[in-house]
Write a structure and sequence with these properties.
Residues 308-401 form the UDP-glucose/GDP-mannose dehydrogenase C-terminal domain. The protein is an alpha/beta fold. It has two domains: 2-198, 3-Layer(aba) Sandwich (Rossmann fold); 227-428, NAD(P)-binding Rossmann-like Domain (Rossmann fold), CATH 3.40.50. Helix content is 37%, strand content 14%. The chain has 13 helices and 13 strands. Helix 5 (124-135) links the parallel strand 5 and strand 6. The longest helix is centred in the middle third of the chain and has 32 residues, at 197-228. It starts with a strand and ends in a 19-residue tail after the last strand.
Length: 428
Amino acid sequence: MKIAVIGLGYIGLPTAIMFANHGQNVVGIDLKEDAVNMLNAGKIHIEEPGLQIELTKALLSGNFKAQLQLEKADVFIVAVPTPNRADTYLSCDLTHVQDAIQKTIPYLEKGNVLILESTIAPRTTEDVVKPMLEEAGFIVGQDIFLVHCPERVLPGKIIHELVHNNRIIGGLTSACVEAGKKVYGVFVQGELIEASAGAAELSKLIENTYRDVNIALANELAKIGNALGINALEVIEMANKHPRVNLHSPGPGVGGHCLAVDPYFIVAATPENTPLIQQARAINSSMPDFIVENIKGLMANIDGKKVTVFGTTYKGDVDDIRESPAIDIIQLLEKETDFELVVFDPHVKAPWIESDLEKAVENADLVCVLTDHSEFKTVTATQFEGMKQKNIFDTKHVIPELEKMVIYNMGNLYEMKKGSKKLVPITE
């Protein structure tokens, strides 16, 4: 098969390369000329373990190339961004999807398969994309096989999970489902789950919403523990020893292209039926303010001036800052004119990010850990010797026990309250 993948981002690029490395002729399409040039030169433009090796393999085989313009193919896979709109319920912005479909239509021929991998609002495939194809003169299910096949992969493990995870094949007709199964059957070893397009759309959204709601419960528990003077992390550890309880971990908020975005697509589709989802979103969205208020309380207590932030990404060991709560926290701290702020992140390169840990913490009164990068799990006390006051606020609970360091986390936030006179090193 010849496969055109439209959008070479965190999902589109690994998908394209995976097809190429399983014997398919793949052309990747992207609007960013720099990204296209980098890929054709043999360098990935995003951070994902194992992807560089896979790209090299795909280029050497001659099965992959990147370019700016579309061309004819047997299969077209749309993997473009779907951000939130700036409306009441932050609904799904289909601008990029519709643009990709419009640009694809002139290249479509009877028998082609058109696959939407982009995360989309419920009924988008049937109510938005299908009419676009019909207006162009195609009969969906006969001339063109239209399918929604959402990705279900974890950044940092995309290569493995593309192959081994189950894959939902949501077609508008049974013929569309079969066409989608034939495409993904090239490399997917997990189950190919047959579904309607609408069910596939809602399933992807509710999977991420499930996690968002559970994280909201953990974050609310952190606030409860803070108010009552009870260690929330200890509570979670004990509660999870119950055979039917699996509480998530609290943190500085929820980010990324899925958990912080997808629930709104359901809310916008039926706001009157989603009070729980809306409340969970509100709780998780409140966490950056909650973190900053605790930082301000501690800094007032210790008369601190310099805060060093560890991590800008929404999860560990990636360079993805989309919807990252760390960015929200940094922006809030920048408004605090009494503080000097330095940001350190070994995975993200930017002029405003310090690349050297020891320089970043020099004369700092507080280090605030906002991302669970592996590098933070192996730090030593020596690396923090340059701090003026040795306080760490570890919102991700990843910093090891360090000699002479006072470590606060999401379990003992109450120790940080303004007016507390006792600073007790935490040795959990």
